[in-house]
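In response to reviewer comment 3 from the previous cycle, which asked for concrete evidence that the modeling workflow produces usable outputs, we include below a single protein chain processed end to end. The sequence was submitted unchanged, and the resulting structure tokens are shown without manual editing.
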Amino acid sequence: MTDLIVNDRPVRFNMDPQTPLLWALRDAANLTGTKYGCGSGDCGACMVLIDGEALRSCLVTLAECEGRVVVTVEGLSRDRSHPVQQALVAEQAIQCGFCTPGIVMAAAALLRTNADPSEDQIKQAITNLCRCGVYPRLVRAIQRAGRVTRRAERISAAPAPGIDAKDAAAAVPAMRAD
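The workflow returned the following structure tokens.
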């Protein structure tokens, strides 16, 4: 059995200690925000924070996580209010969304250590693959999230989960057809 803290909760996994953390999170803990992309650590879709460091969960075994603190995208912000999540939406830096959880986790780790990253620092830290090619918007979004983190800017939040769609739509000006 492997004991660790996942999203601020103690968890005991009764699985083979050599199981990749990715599968323990997805299959045993039902935390499906952590995505399986390649299984070889190349894409970053499975990125989580382990003791505050962004790591690819497909390359880390349960045994290596014994006693450590793991944060998944579900645990980063339950109401989607984390500056990275808000900035990605505000900058329209999400297309299909498959890579988004891993990018969010990598960007959150970067901003914890550097709230004012340059474009080059972002490109070095965010090595996740995005098949939709949102990279220019991604850089802008992470820089914007940094400004929010430094309290130099505010972002009007997207509706929290559970908001009725017609109530959320009522707050958006009507689109003109012409």
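The chain has a mean pLDDT of 89. We consider this sufficient to address the reviewer's concern, and the full set will be provided in the supplementary archive.
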